[in-house]
Amino acid sequence: RIAIGSLVAADAAAVDRAVQAARAARADWRGTPWPQRIAMLCRAADAIRRDRFEIAMGLVYEVGKSRLEAMGEVEESIDLIDYYCEQAEQAQHWQRPLRPGSATETGSDRLVPYGVFAVISPFNFPLALAVGMTSSALLAGNTVVWKPSPGAAFSAPALARAYREAGLPDGVFNFVAGDRDVGQALIEHPGVDGVAFTGSHEVGMAIARRMLAGAFARPVLAELGGKNAAFVTASADLDAAASGVARAAFGLSGQKCSSCSKVYVARALEREFLERLAAIAERLVVGDPTQARTFTGPVIDAAAAARFEQAVAQARADGRVVAGGRRLAAADAPELGERAENGAYLRPTIVAGLPPEHPVNRRELFVPLVSVQPYDALADAIDDSNRSALGLTSGIYCRDERELALYYDRIEAGVLYVNRASGATTGAWPGYQTFCGWKGSGTTGKGGLGPYYVTQFMREQSRTVAR
Ligand code: UN1
Questions:
Q1: pTM
Q2: Which residues make beta-bridge pairs with 299?
Q3: Closest ligand 1 atom to 449 CA
């Protein structure tokens, strides 16, 4: 472990002060002309752009991200702000005339902010997911109280600084650090008008239930987990499939909600696909994330390592381990020295031969492990994948139009990728993909990075005026 800084956790009184500050700032922020809000957010993007290398380095240290993933995340954050601002501009901030009721009646419609949004972000994309949620809440005209994950709160001050430098008035953006209890205090605060959350299905659903429980429902925009599958059909380009699955399953050590953790492969191709996937997995460099050649660094904490070890043991008992299945020791990675024992560096792992209902095939594990299973009929494989309560991303390798049509028609997921070698289920980018969780992977049916995101931070008001 390396100490890279310390943060003071908020207590209930600090959470209350943050919410009160956000409430006090509401009216002025809502009343600020939207082009000015856009201009401020663009300045925040500029500040992030200026400090991108430093911020990325922080992500490498706090999350163990590779340099490529860290730089990608910072660039994505900048693009998120730009894209959302562009949306707001194009829509003239969602104000439009309605049909006039008569010669003496005019009508207009607008989307207006809810008030105060609590934003709770996870460890895996500490900057991008925080930027995505907070910038849209702010752009919509809400004030924000943000709590980052305690697993990755070191980059948090950088974001707070960017907003401050951008000229956001006091109280518009508030940052509280802390654990789950701080998040709980925030959610339970009566001054919070809505919540944006990215994280686990369980926590997200608990927040959603809580926000429904008061005198009236308050909005919860949640982006939750995934049990994302790739389908490798009989007409697949196997090289593209192996490359896409390897990147999606092992990138960031499987700790993306978009990570691919399951593959359904046409039975005749199973052996060959496994060979190609294993060949890639074995070449991937796991090690010191500060080194450019490293593909993936350590996982976030001991709990992740324990989930990995348990899944590997279960897979060994009930099926087989085709590649990986172990943790690096000091002897495997001389350049890491004793740090190999200090963090959990997990080899990209492929398992096979597990029954469909096996826990490894059903649970979201958030570790670099993918389970491959053969299928006889694509429709059955899709149905099996749909049995998951989650429905975030999905990928298919297929050059048969009829099978593709079947897939589009049947798959229950919000983010689909076809024949993509750069990532079977991962790699969404603002404006190019929308990151929308179906079923238990989200609460609103509309996703981040896409054209309908910002509007979810607002409610509608029509105004009919008689003369
Ligand atoms: C997440 O892991 O919570 O599409 C979302 C991707 C990334 C996912 C971020 N943008 O792979």
A1: 0.96
A2: none
A3: 10
| 137 phi-psi bin (left φ>0, alpha ψ -120 to 50, beta other) | alpha
Q: Which of 257, 260, 398, 436 is catalytic?
A: 257
Here the tokens at position 74 are 């910072």
The CA distance from 322 to 83, in Å, is 42
Give the number of the atom of ligand 1 that is nearest the alpha carbon of residue 425: 11
390 neighbors 414 (Cβ within 8 angstroms): no
**In angstroms, what is the C-alpha Rg of the chain?**
23
**Per-residue DSSP letter, 182:** H
Q: Which helix (H) or strand (E) holds 311?
A: helix 302-318
Residue of 59, 74, 426, 434 best suited for mutating to test ligand 1, as the one with most atoms within 8 Å of CB:
426
DSSP for residue 2: -
- The answer to whether residue 223 is catalytic is yes
Closest Cα to atom 3 of ligand 1 = 257
Predicted confidence (pLDDT) per residue in 433-456, tens digit: 999 999 999 999 999 999 999 999
* Beta strand 393-397 pairing with 228-232: parallel
The pLDDT tens digits for 180-220 are: 999 999 999 999 999 999 999 999 999 999 999 989 999 99
